[in-house]
Design a protein that fits this description.
By secondary structure, this protein is mainly α. The protein has 15 helices and three strands. The N terminus is likely disordered.
Length: 372
């Protein structure tokens, strides 16, 4: 089992392209689409072989992840942790790069820093593709809540997807500014690779699944405090009506940490300044069927957002989880009796057994409901 687990971790870092490139959403290219504008692809080069996914290895992975539930949960928890770290590091680095570029003296940015920044971005994209492949091969890992940790994994996945979307799609954001600098060493950093990877995951859980699974996925996605409908609209180049409230009518918020910061507010500007990424611009890489699925997903989430906003009852601040300030308190820890929502404590216990507040070792978690 250890060898199999190490193999899966290896796939998440180094061997992803030959495993699933060619069957992921918009993942049929040999060179990044934005790079082809400056240097057309030479199909005769041996290093540019057409994508050829390993279906045999995919079947073995699906069988392993389906049968060994504990290992599957540990593997997905590791991938989500790595993704959170890699994307957080990437955001921190591009912030430093942008600050250096804006100084009057135009400080030189170290080449090694640019390479590390690009590596963190490439790793984030690869880990997102691992998650896309996993939810395609074994969707029950996230959507069958009779499996251990399935609901928790889905909530963590939704949180990370929302954070990535917010960082990359907010108008005139840090990501846009650094991409437009076109610095040597950051050639791979662009909207297309990371947005289509996120889109592939969302399509798998919101469109391609059964009715119960898509309903669960939509409910979890919309309940996350970082969810912004305009981020989904952005994928199709549609203008955002508002960047303020979330689907449930709350202001955007999130747990502490560099990757959870809310997106920058929309800024006014000319029509050319508001022009941004759109899947419609990549007809050579994204099929008509894929675009139709994204349109279906946007329509579905728009309707679900309206229903969620209409049915959400206000919650007093004292009843909110003191960790995320998004969900109601629903769990009490033993023996210390501190409280949080189930999502926060369950995620915390996957990596740490100490209480958030007093550092006592948590021996159990019980359901909590506020006394009437």
């Amino acid at each position: 089992m250890l060898c199999e687990f190490v193999l899966l971790l290896f796939l998440s870092k180094a061997a992803l392209p030959p495993v699933c490139q060619g069957c992921g959403f918009g993942y049929r290219y040999t060179r990044l689409p934005h790079l082809l504008k400056t240097k057309p692809e030479d199909a005769n080069l041996p290093s540019l072989q057409k994508p050829c996914p390993s279906l045999l290895l995919q079947r073995h992975m699906a069988e392993l992840l389906s049968t060994d539930k504990d290992m599957a949960a540990s593997f997905l928890n590791s991938v989500l942790n790595q993704l959170n770290w890699a994307f957080s590091e990437f955001i921190g680095m591009i912030q430093e790069i942008q600050q250096a570029a804006e100084r009057p003296e135009r400080n030189f940015v170290d080449t090694r820093q640019l390479k590390v920044c690009a590596t963190c971005f490439d790793l984030s994209v690869s880990l997102l593709r691992v998650l896309e492949m996993t939810v395609t091969l074994v969707p029950e890992i996230f959507l069958d809540w009779t499996r251990p940790s399935a609901e928790l994994l889905l909530r963590r996945l939704a949180q990370l997807l929302n954070q990535v979307l917010n960082r990359v799609t907010a108008e005139k954001n840090l990501f846009d500014r650094v991409v437009n600098l076109r610095l040597p060493g950051l050639e791979s950093v662009d909207h297309y690779p990371i947005l289509v990877a996120v889109t592939g995951i969302l399509v798998r859980i919101l469109v391609d699944g059964d009715k119960q699974g898509t309903s669960r996925a939509a409910s979890v996605l919309l309940s996350d405090p970082c969810f912004q409908l305009h981020s989904i609209q952005h994928l199709l180049g549609e203008p955002a009506e508002s960047a303020g409230p979330t689907a449930a009518g709350r202001p955007a918020a999130g747990p502490p940490g560099p990757s959870a910061a809310p997106p920058a507010p929309l800024a006014a500007g000319s029509a050319s300044e508001r022009k941004h990424f759109s899947l419609h611009a990549y007809t050579d890489y994204i099929s008509l069927e894929e675009k139709q699925k994204v349109e279906e997903m946007l329509e579905f989430l728009t309707e679900e957002s309206k229903q969620a906003a209409a049915s959400t009852a206000p919650t007093s601040e004292e009843d909110l989880c003191p960790i995320c300030y998004a969900h109601s308190i629903s769990a009490v820890f033993r023996p210390c009796s501190h409280k949080s929502c189930k999502a926060c404590i369950n995620q915390h216990l996957m990596n740490n057994k100490d209480c958030f507040f007093c550092k006592a070792t948590i021996t159990g978690v019980e359901d909590y409901s506020k006394p009437s």
